[in-house]
C-alpha cells in the first residue's frame, strides 16, 4: 500500500478551514508564513481566498466564489448574528480602535469581563430588571467568545474578573465603514437625547 505524499502545509489548511490562525499559535503561524505562496495557490483551487494580515498577526479564508457560481462549494461554517450580537461585535471593534490610538505599549488588548460589561452598558438600553439586563450582556459576551472574537486567557472564581483577549480578527470582520455607521447612529442618539432634555 503506497502512501501519497502529504503536503507540508496540510495541517495549516485544516486549521484555516476550522477558523482563523493567529501569530500566538507559533508553529502554525510560522508554517503559514513559510508556505503562504503555496497555500494561496492551493486554496484558490478549492475556491477559497487567503486573507493574511502579517502586521496584526492573523489569517483566515473566505470564499472566492459567490453562492450563484456553478463551481461554488461551501467549505466554511457561516455564523449569523442577532442585532444585539452584532452591536456587541461593533462595541468590541470600537474598543480595539480606541486601544490602537492609545499610547499602550502592549500588542494585545486584554479586558476583564467586568470592563466589557461596563463599556457595553453605555450603549445597550437597560430594561426593567437590572439583573436580567446584566445577564443578557453576559450572554452576548459568551456568544462572541464562542464565535471566536474573544479568547479567554484567564479564568477566575469571580466571573466578572475573567480576562479576555479581544482578537484582532475582529478588524477584518467589522470594517471601518460599519464602525463609522455605528458612531454616526450614536451621535444621532446623543443629539436626540439632548433635544429631549431641553
UniProtKB/TrEMBL annotation:
Stored InterPro entries: JetB
| Official protein name in the record | DUF4194 domain-containing protein
- The organism is Chitinophaga pinensis (strain ATCC 43595 / DSM 2588 / LMG 13176 / NBRC 15968 / NCIMB 11800 / UQM 2034)
